[in-house]
Specification:
- This protein has 197 residues and is an all-alpha fold.
- It is built from six helices and no strands.
- Helix 5 crosses helix 6.
- The longest helix is centred in the N-terminal third of the chain and has 46 residues.
């Protein structure tokens, strides 16, 4: 059987768009923009060169995705934000929150009795060469990888906000800093909820 798919050839346009994005990132972000882009490239390499092949080879998708998420968190945060205390606090916060998110995802999938068979494509997966892939683990792995983008953004912004508040007013006590940080965090939650809706 032969198939013919007719569509526009978009690869040249996409390459130019990516190069333009990279140029703007370096122009406005300077060295931080460049290292952030390197972190993004490394994240893609971890997913495409490590996580996906290991899952296809039959390893536990949840454990592989969790390991990949930890590697991505460590490398991308350190590359993008540099070796300083603020980055280490954000990294520790990201890893702790990732652990909590994993526990919550396991609980949610167990309580909801989700099997990972939510679409026609997953049924096809079970009949081909990937028949041995644990679909529930794959669902959990997708949730973990999906959490990484949100956690990276929130923990770095939250850490930076508290650090800047502390620098602006060094006389604030730990309790006052915590209350200020919680206030910023509530705004994060409110804005993220509105974007989801």
């Amino acid at each position: 059987t032969e198939y013919l798919v007719r569509d526009a050839y978009r690869l040249p346009a996409l390459i130019w768009l990516c190069l333009g994005f990279l140029a703007l990132t370096v122009l406005f972000g300077r060295m931080t923009g460049l290292t952030s882009t390197l972190g993004l490239a490394l994240s893609i390499a971890v997913l495409a060169g490590g996580v996906m092949p290991l899952i296809v080879a039959g390893h536990d998708p949840l454990l592989v995705s969790l390991g990949g998420a930890v590697i991505i968190a460590c490398t991308s945060l350190l590359l993008a934000h540099g070796l300083r205390l603020r980055t280490y606090v954000a990294l520790l916060s990201t890893l702790l929150t990732l652990g909590a998110a994993t526990m919550l995802a396991l609980l949610a999938v167990w309580v909801s009795e989700l099997s990972g068979l939510g679409s026609e494509e997953t049924v096809f997966l079970q009949t081909g060469s990937l028949a041995g892939v644990d679909l529930r683990g794959l669902l959990l792995g997708g949730i973990i990888i999906g959490c990484m983008g949100v956690l990276d953004d929130i923990t770095t912004a939250q850490t930076a906000a508290v650090d800047e508040i502390s620098r602006a007013n060094p006389s604030l006590s730990d309790g006052q800093l915590m209350r200020a940080g919680m206030s910023v965090g509530r705004e994060h939650i409110a804005s993220d909820r509105k974007s989801v809706v």
